[in-house]
Amino acid sequence: MDMIDELAGTIDEKCHVADRPDIPLVPSDDSSRKNAPTSTCLIVLGMAGSGKTTFVENLSKYLTANGAAPYIVNLDPAVRQVPYPVNIDIRDTVKYKAVMKKFGLGPNGGIMTSLNLFTTKFSGVLDLLEKRKFEVKHMIFDTPGQIEVFTWSASGSIITEALADSFPTVIVYVMDVSTSTSPITFMSNMLYACSILYKSKLPFIIALNKIDMVDPTLVMKWISDFEAFDVAVEKEESYAANLSRSLGLILDEFYGAIRTVPVSALTCQGFPKFVEAVEAATLEFNTEYKPEMDKMKADQRESRKLKSEDRFEKLKREVLEISTGPSSSRDDKSRAMDTSVSIGPQGDSNAKHEQRNFDAEESGMEETSFQRFLESAKKAKEIAKKPAA
Ligand SMILES: Nc1nc2c(ncn2[C@@H]2O[C@H](COP(=O)(O)OP(=O)(O)O)[C@@H](O)[C@H]2O)c(=O)[nH]1
Ligand SMILES: [Mg+2]
């Protein structure tokens, strides 16, 4: 048993999800529910201290007060106290301090490794979510304080993709408005948001947080009007200001692909607008993202099939070259092709064997080129689309 299995073993014993008893459970295979809308997953991301946990806490209170208690998953292994009624808590599965000790890691490595370990058990989480998908309208995922642990790790991508494969999934980027009032920090925040949008390729909402502290009018203006941002950045005298100005022009396209909602996670100000934005993003997922993903998958299967046929033809021609020699005339080759059976069972099985090798090599390349294709197609779609902010 290796170290991960050993840890995962202990995980299962301790990991019993605190499934909230107040949400009634109706079997998801109930035929009357087949076409009912399922829960929307909200993955809450943002810089450390931007207010993710406070946002999840008060959004949960707000939704509960409006008759739709959400299902909440805490993915932050290092949080001391979870201030909301959590349904699945990573801390029940992985003990972050034990992981640090066992692997000799610092705090960030401990958080990252704990999330990786949890991800190895994520199919269990999906099973639990599946059972609840008709019972709750929103499934909310609070993520680790350090944003990069989720956004730039394999486990973050695996979790995001697994959720988007099963449920409408929306990224909620909590952005602290008080750290965005200078054009340069605003631009850094926006670049980060943009990188997450292009990486996740999912409907995206910016929750512009802490508006009880700082008036968001200026930042909202910069998002909707490049000229206003340009005027602000002109007052700055630095290389970063020049860079920000150029980036501002480029990111103008990106702003069209996102919804920005000013909120206060502390006072619940802006939450009704936020819930509306979630509804619009869910619709966008169902009508645009999902069909596109399904089409991409079908195209991928078709392209694999065509490539495979093409390769087989190529292989046949090569076998022919060998059997008839390079100087043979076209007719000779065709004849030899007709009698290819006469090459014998040995030749035939070699051909199949070679094709299998070829297939194995090529499928890796196809995977990469498909990813590239997917990204550029999605990017074009997102840039083209300009929903109202
Ligand atoms: N004034 C104000 N403070 C907030 C708001 N949201 C979060 N905070 C504070 O910001 C700090 C960090 O919040 P937390 O939710 O832990 O951030 P996280 O690291 O992103 O989870 C805490 O002191 C919160 O009380 C808000 O809307 N307004
Ligand atoms: Mg937090």
What does this protein structure show overall?
The longest helix has 54 residues, at 271-324. α4 crosses α5, α11 (226-234) runs antiparallel to α12 (239-255) and α13 (271-324) packs antiparallel against α15 (344-384). Helices cover 61% and strands 9% of the residues. The protein is of the alpha/beta class. The chain folds into two domains: 3-290, P-loop containing nucleotide triphosphate hydrolases (Rossmann fold), CATH 3.40.50.300; 296-384. The protein has helices at 3-14, 52-65, 90-93, 96-103, 107-119, 122-132, 147-151, 154-166, 183-200, 217-224, 226-234, 239-255, 271-324, 330-338, 344-384, and strands at residues 40-46, 71-74, 88-89, 138-142, 169-176, 204-209, 259-262. Bound molecules: guanosine-5'-diphosphate (GDP) and magnesium ion. Magnesium ion is lined by residues 52-53, 76, 79, 145. InterPro entries: Gpn, Gpn1/Npa3/XAB1, P-loop_NTPase.
What order do the helices and strands come in, and which of them pair?
Blueprint: H1 3-14, E1 40-46, H2 52-65, E2 71-74, E3 88-89, H3 90-93, H4 96-103, H5 107-119, H6 122-132, E4 138-142, H7 147-151, H8 154-166, E5 169-176, H9 183-200, E6 204-209, H10 217-224, H11 226-234, H12 239-255, E7 259-262, H13 271-324, H14 330-338, H15 344-384
Parallel strand pairs: 1-4, 1-5, 2-3, 2-4, 5-6, 6-7
The structure holds guanosine-5'-diphosphate (GDP) and magnesium ion.
Magnesium ion (MG) is lined by residues 52-53, 76, 79, 145.
Family: Belongs to the GPN-loop GTPase family.
Protein name: GPN-loop GTPase
EC number: 3.6.5.-
Give a short synopsis of this structure.
The chain has 389 residues and is of the alpha/beta class.
